[in-house]
Amino acid sequence: MGKVILEVKNLKTKYVTRFGENVYAVDGVSFKIEEGKSLGIAGESGCGKSTLALSLMGYYFPPLHYMSGDIIIDGKNISGMNPDEVRKTILGTEIAYIPQAAMNALNPTQKIIRFIEDVVHAHDPKADKKVIREIAEKRFAELGLPAKVLDQHAVELSGGMKQRTVIAVSTILNPKVLIADEPSSALDVTSQKMVIKMMRELMDKGYIKAMVFITHELPLLYNVTDDIMVMYAGQIVERGTAKEMVFDPTHPYSHGLMGSILVPEEGTRGHKLTAIPGTPPNLKHPPDGCRFADRCKYAAPECRYYTIPEKEFGDNRMYRCLKSLDELKEVYDHE
Amino acid sequence: MSEDRIVPSKDFTNAPLCLSGRHVTKVFGFGDKKTIAVNDVSFDFHEGEFVSIVGESGSGKTTLSKILLGLLNHTEGEILFQGQPRDISTGKKRNAYWKGIQAIFQDPFSSYNSFHKIDSVLLDCINMRGGKNLPMEKKVEMMTEACSFVNLKFAELTNKYPFELSGGQMQRLMIARIFLLKPKILLADEPTSMVDACSRATILDMLLQLRDEIGMTIIFITHDIGLAYYISDTVYIMEHGKFVEYGKADEVILNPKAAYTKRLISDVPKIHEEWDLSTVELATE
Q: If I label A51, which of A280, B44, B227, B261 is the partner at 20 to 30 A Cα–Cα?
C-alpha cells in the first residue's frame, strides 16, 4: 500500500439558501487516494459531484458551508481553515481545482504569462518575473504546449488549447492533488484525448501525485482513472476499481449507470440501454432510509426505514445497499 | 423501446424517399474570406429511417441542419421534399413545409419562451394542427397523453414556467411537442449533449419510440459516434462540409473505410479495447 496523499473522513457540507433552508449536498463522504493513483467520481447531474469537488478544496464561501469531517492532504488537515489562509497556503501548492468551464475563466485582456505570474505571486510575492517565465517555458515545453502561447491572449487559442493551458497554469506549482471537474466535456473527441494525455503526463512526471476526476462519461472514466466511486444524493453508494465497477457493478444505481454506456464497439447495438426513471431526491429533506429507494426496481419496504450502512467487501470495495451481494447478484441474473 | 428492435441496421434503399439533397452547397462570405461550410453534398433520407450525421465541431453539421429546416438558404443545389423540389419562397409555403419537418435543438433552455407557461406551449401545438375548435377536455386529454409519452405528469406541469423544470425534463417536453405535432421528419440537433448519461438513455428511447410508433424519419445530428452507432440505421460521417463516408451503421462503424472515420472511432474511449493515447501528439511547434 502506497502513501496516502488525500484522505477524506466523513465530510459533510451544506448549502444555505436565501430562505435559510439547508441543502445537504455532501453527506458523509469518506475515501482515500494513494500516491500515483487517480479516483473517478461518477453520478447523475444533481448528485453532489461538483459540490464534493468544491468541498475538497477547503475553500468555502457562501452559500457553501462546511459542517464536519476531515480533509487530510499528505498528513496536513485543511478542513475548517480560514478561507484566506487556504487561498495563500493550500490552493495551487497542495491542491489545484479545474472547474467545469475552466476555459471561460481566462481574462481576455491578459496574456497567459500573467496568469502564471498571478499564481506564483499569490504564494511568493517577491518572485522574479524572469524566473517565472523560465519555469513556465520549461513546463509548457514538457507538456507539449508551444511557448508562444505564453504571450498570447485567451481569445487567440482554440477551446482544447485553452483547456490545456488552464491545466498547465493551475499545476505550475506542483500541487499534490488535482481535482478536475468535467475538464473535457465541452471539447470534441480529439481535443479530449489531448487533455487526457496531458493529465496522464503530469501524473507520470510526478508533478501531481494524485487526481480526482469527475465526469458522467463512464467510458472516459474507465480509461482514465484507477478507481471509481459512484455518488448518489450526496453519498457514495459504491466504490471499486474501474474494471470492477464497469463490468461487475453491485449497487442497483451503479448497475443502472453502467447500463447506459454507449461506445462504438461491436455489441453496443445489441444491448438494451437501461434508463433509471425519476430524478434524484431533494436534498433539503433527504429521505429516511435508502435515498435511492424511490427509483430502485428492487426496493423492498424495509429499504425506506433503515439507515443503510456502508458495507465493505472484497479488495477495498464498498457498497451501500440493504441487500446482500448474493441477493443482488440473483436479481441481476434474473433479468 | 420496442422489444423487436432489429439489431442489424435495416435496409432502407427501397423505402419511399422523404428528404433528399442534390449537390447542396453553402458558402459564407465571398472573395478571400469565403468559407465553404457545406460542400456539394447529396443524400437520400427515406421514410422511417433513423439517420445520424456525425462530425466534429466545425464540420458543417449544424449549417446543414439549418438548410434542411429552411432557416438558411443554400447557395447551390436542390433539396427535394417527398420527391418534389422544396419551395419555401413565401411565408405560407414555409409554414406548410414546417408541418412536415420539426426540430429539437441542443439547448432546451433557449428553446422556450420563458414568459409562456408550459400549458400554452403544448396548447399552441394542438391549435396549430387544426385542433383549435376542440373542447378543452379533449385538449387536456391530448396534452396528458403527450406528457405521459415522455414520462412526465401533465397535472404537475400545469401553471409552471419552463425555468422551473430541469434540463432533462425540458428536453422531454420538447419531445412531447413533437408527439403532438406529428411531423414527417424530426431533426434532432445534439439533443442529448446537455443532459447526463442517464437522461440520455431516456431521450434516445423516446426518439426510437417516435420512429417505431409514428413512422417518423429522424435525422440525428451528433458528435458522439458511439451514440450514433447505437441508435441509427444509416450513418453519414461529415468532415469539412463533405460526407466522407456513409452507409449502414454496422458497416461504417465496425468496418470504417475513410481515414477520418477511423480517427474519430479511435479517439473515443472504449471499454473492451484499450484506449490508445499515443495516436494524438501534444502539438509542438
A: B227
Residue with cell 429552411: B70
Q: Searching chain B, which residue's CA lies closest to the CA of residue A218?
A: B197
Cross-strand pairs, A34: A4
CB B42 within 8 A of CB B22: yes
Which residues of chain B have a CB within 8 Å of the CB of A196?
277
Instruction: Say how far apart CA A225 and CA A41 lie, in whole Å.
Output: 9
Residue B98: DSSP 8-state: H
Instruction: Determine which helix (DSSP H) or strand (DSSP E) holds A237, and give its type and residue range.
Output: strand A235-241
Contact A174, A209 (CB under 8 A): no
Strand (E) positions, B113-209? 185-189
- Domain boundaries defined on chain B: 17-269
Please report residues of A whose CB lies closer than 8 A to that of B282.
143-145, 164, 194, 197-198, 201
In this prediction the pTM is 0.85
Condensed to tens digits (0 to 9), the pLDDT of residues A145-197 reads: 888 999 999 888 888 888 889 999 999 999 999 999 988 877 888 888 889 99
Determine contact, residues B48/B15, Cβ cutoff 8 Å: yes
CA distances from B64 to B78, B105, B243 (A): 13, 14, 11
Q: Which domain holds residue A253?
A: 4-334
| Chain A residue with Cα closest to B203 | A275
Query: CA end-to-end span of chain B, whole Å?
Result: 50
**3-state secondary structure (DSSP) of residue A321:** coil
ipTM score assigned to the predicted complex: 0.79
Query: How many domains are there within chain A?
Result: 1
Tell me if chain A has a CB within 8 Å of the CB of B6. Answer: no
Please tell me which of the candidates A146, A266, A279 has its beta carbon nearest to residue B166.
A279
Across the interface, whether the CB atoms of A197 and B277 are under 8 A apart is answered yes
Residues of A in contact with B201 (CB under 8 A): 259-260, 273-275
Query: What dotted CATH number matches B17-269?
Result: 3.40.50.300
DSSP label at residue A5: E
Task: Tell me how far apart the alpha carbons of residues B238 and B223 are, in angstroms, rounded to a whole number.
Answer: 10
The span from the CA of A68 to the CA of B115, in Å, is: 42
* CATH number of the domain enclosing A325: 3.40.50.300
SS3 A76: strand
Query: What is the helix (H) or strand (E) element at residue B221, kind and residue range?
Result: strand B217-222
Hey, are the CB atoms on A261 and B267 less than 8 Å from each other? Answer: no
CB count, 10 Å around CB of B90?
Answer: 9
pLDDT in tens, A73-113: 988 888 878 888 888 888 888 899 998 877 788 889 999 99
